[in-house]
Amino acid sequence: IDTAATAMAAVESVRFDVERSGDPVYIDTVESIELDAVIGRFAAPADADAIVTVTIDGSLVTELGAVALGTDIWLSNPITGDFEPLPPSYDIDPSRFFDPTGGWQPLLDGLTDRELLDDGAAYVVRGVAPEAELRRVTAGLVRADDVVVDLWLDPHTALVQRIEFSVTGARYGTSDWRIDLSDYGAPFTIVAPEGVGS
User: Fold this and answer.
1) pTM to 2 decimal places
2) CA-to-CA distance for 170 and 157, rounded, in angstroms?
3) Which of 56, 67, 141, 173 could form a disulfide with 60 if both were Cys (CB 3.0 to 4.6 A apart)?
4) How confident is the model at residue 197 (pLDDT cuts 50, 70, 90)?
5) Can you tell me the distance from the alpha carbon of 152 to that of 163, in angstroms, rounded to the nearest whole number?
6) Helix, coil or strand: residue 64
7) Cβ distance 136 to 130 under 8 Å?
8) Which residues lie closer than 8 Å to 188 by C-beta, 6 or more apart?
């Protein structure tokens, strides 16, 4: 885990695939847009683009595009498809799903009650992640007490391949999460959406 924390802090680029199920988790303050999945790419220091699968008003499943370049964040309008600056009532900055030094390194460093479950093709480690650190690697969407997580680590590089956990909160019930990480070091180029400038 200590080696993994150091390796994750040095990541320059990665592909992330988030799947969430169970009771709804909302990305807007009026709680009408439920997060289902995110597929995206991260390039250091803080650029990312993603396709976000959401359910609107409990029935309409659709995809939104999201792009973050530094402090600029754009989200596609669910009706027109045009990219617009992220509205203040939304909380879906794609760059926050992967923060090497502010998210993954402190999460791994803060992992307690560590237990090796398997040392086969991947090392599977179970531990308790601090709530604050888990919130950082889920773009602020997980709000619960400390959470038991299972981590799959590459036995050669120590980089995280997958994290799985379930979160139970007093307000939203139980939500199940899986984040897969791949294509470490790939030469991703994140650009502003067409027509919005940078």
Assistant:
1) 0.91
2) 38
3) 56
4) low
5) 6
6) strand
7) no
8) 13, 15, 41, 42, 43
Q: For residue 190, which phi and psi values (nearest 5 degrees)?
A: -95, 125
CA 178 to the chain's CA centroid: 9
Q: Letter for the amino acid at 157?
A: T
Place of tokens 């999945």: 37
Q: Render pLDDT for 147-185 as a digit per residue (tens, 0 to 9).
A: 999 999 999 999 999 999 999 875 668 999 999 999 999
Contact 83, 74 (CB under 8 A): yes
Q: Which helix (H) or strand (E) holds 4?
A: helix 2-9
Place of tokens 């994290």: 163
Report the relative pairing of strands 160-169 and 13-22 from DSSP bridges: unpaired
Structure tokens at 81: 């498809």
CB 175 within 8 A of CB 3: no
